[in-house]
Design a protein that fits this description.
heterodimer; A: 115 residues; mainly beta; 0% helix; B: mainly beta; globular
Chain lengths: 115, 115
């Protein structure tokens, strides 16, 4: 059984640019969540996708957007990058849309640096 | 406003001794609690969870205790092993509430187990 894979692992962008991060869910999982982990902080919920629709959103501005595809893979897009967007972006998949009932499986993350 | 707090950024213990990691929460809607472990360059991995209807859950060397009246939970690792050295995150979910799609994480505690 393959786990959650994310790409790219590291990338550097400049302020104002746009970035797309990609995630392949664990086999059999239909729900994808994205979390942002800033340095020295715990992961913060960005949003969740279930059956290709956004199912919940954290306290992030609209320039953070996402997609989920029919094969349950997902993208996180961030427009107009700011310095504070520098963080580790974690993708997590689960078998249902309720994380308390089904454990989230995390990928290793994409480390974004904004200069 | 941090709803899940891990007040100890780090903890150091000797191999074979007990490790106790603490977590406090403020949101009374939380009814499911999880511990995740994170090694460098890897995503968080699920360790153990507990529902609010229980006060203890045990899995091998790992035991989680929940004190609902104090809004406090702790993770006990006995005996501690050098391979347990990692960052431990406490997380909570409002399983039966309106925001049951997300986990709220603490900032993490870095556990170092010395041989």
């Amino acid at each position: 059984e393959t786990g959650v894979t994310q790409s790219p692992t590291h990338l550097i962008k400049t302020r104002g640019q746009q970035v797309t991060l990609r995630c392949s869910s664990q086999s059999g999982h239909n729900t994808v969540s994205w979390y942002q982990q800033a340095l020295g902080q715990g992961p913060q919920f960005i949003f969740q996708y279930y059956r290709e629709e956004e199912n919940g959103r954290g306290n992030f501005p609209p320039r953070f957007s996402g997609l989920q595809f029919p094969n349950y893979s997902s993208e996180l897009n961030v427009n107009a990058l700011e310095l504070d967007d520098s963080a580790l972006y974690l993708c997590a998949s689960s078998g249902t849309k309720v994380p308390g009932a089904n454990v989230l499986t995390f990928g290793a993350g994409s480390r974004l640096t904004v200069l | 406003d941090q709803q899940v707090k891990q007040n100890s950024p780090s903890l150091s213990v000797q191999e074979g001794r007990i490790s106790i990691l603490n977590c406090d929460y403020t949101n009374s809607m939380f009814d499911y609690f999880l511990w995740y472990k994170k090694y460098p360059a890897e995503g968080p991995t699920f360790l153990i969870s507990i529902s609010s209807i229980k006060d203890k859950n045990e899995d091998g060397r790992f035991t989680v205790f929940l004190n609902k009246s104090a809004k406090h939970l702790s993770l006990h690792i006995v005996p501690s092993q050098p391979g347990d050295s990692a960052v431990y995150f406490c997380a909570a979910s409002a399983f039966s509430g309106g925001s049951n799609y997300k986990l709220t994480f603490g900032k993490g505690t870095l556990l170092t187990v010395n041989p």
